[in-house]
Design the sequence.
C-alpha cells in the first residue's frame, strides 16, 4: 500500500516509517506539506495527526494562529475524501491531546471516536484510544502512535 502519514512531530513520523515496514510510506510535516502530498494523488491511505501548529503567511488577522495548535487533521481528512482516497484516519496524540482543558477540539473529537464513514474514515481520539502505545524512553507528555494498529483497523 501507498500510505501518507501526516504529523508535525518528527518522532511520530519516524515511528510510522518503522511501524509500517512493507508498505510504501511517505511522511509530511503539517498542513501545507500534507495537503500538497494528498493533492499529488496515488495514496491508498492517509493517516493524519488531529492537531498541528498553525501555519500561514504571517499576514493579516490569521498571523495570531501561527504556531497555535490547530485541528488540521479534519481538513486534511476532508481533502483526502475529495481526492478519492479510500482509507483515512485522524488520530489524536494521546494524553496531551486528550486533556480536555488544553483545547476545545479535544473534548469535541471524543464524541467522534470510531468509524465515521463506514469502510473509509475513522477518528481515533481520547485517553482510551486503543491505538496508542507508550514507548520506553519517551519522556514527552504524548505517546507514540501505534501506526500499524491504526492501519490494520482502517484496512479491515
Sequence:
Amino acid at each position: 500500500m501507498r500510505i501518507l502519514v501526516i504529523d508535525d512531530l518528527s518522532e511520530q513520523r519516524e515511528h510510522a516509517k518503522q511501524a509500517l515496514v512493507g508498505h510504501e510510506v511517505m511522511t509530511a510535516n503539517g498542513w501545507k506539506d500534507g495537503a500538497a502530498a494528498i493533492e499529488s494523488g496515488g495514496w491508498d491511505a492517509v493517516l493524519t495527526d488531529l492537531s498541528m501548529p498553525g501555519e500561514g503567511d504571517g499576514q493579516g488577522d490569521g498571523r495570531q494562529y501561527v504556531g497555535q495548535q490547530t485541528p488540521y487533521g479534519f481538513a486534511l481528512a476532508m481533502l483526502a475524501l475529495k481526492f478519492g482516497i479510500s482509507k483515512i484516519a485522524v488520530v489524536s496524540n494521546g494524553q496531551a491531546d486528550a486533556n480536555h482543558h488544553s483545547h476545545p477540539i479535544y473534548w469535541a473529537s471524543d464524541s467522534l471516536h470510531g468509524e465515521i464513514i463506514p469502510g473509509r474514515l475513522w477518528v481515533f481520539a481520547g485517553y482510551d484510544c486503543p491505538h496508542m502505545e507508550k514507548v520506553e524512553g519517551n519522556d514527552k507528555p504524548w505517546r507514540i502512535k501505534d501506526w500499524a494498529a491504526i492501519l490494520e483497523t482502517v484496512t479491515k
Remarks:
- DSSP finds six helices and ten strands in the chain.
- The chain has a mean pLDDT of 83.
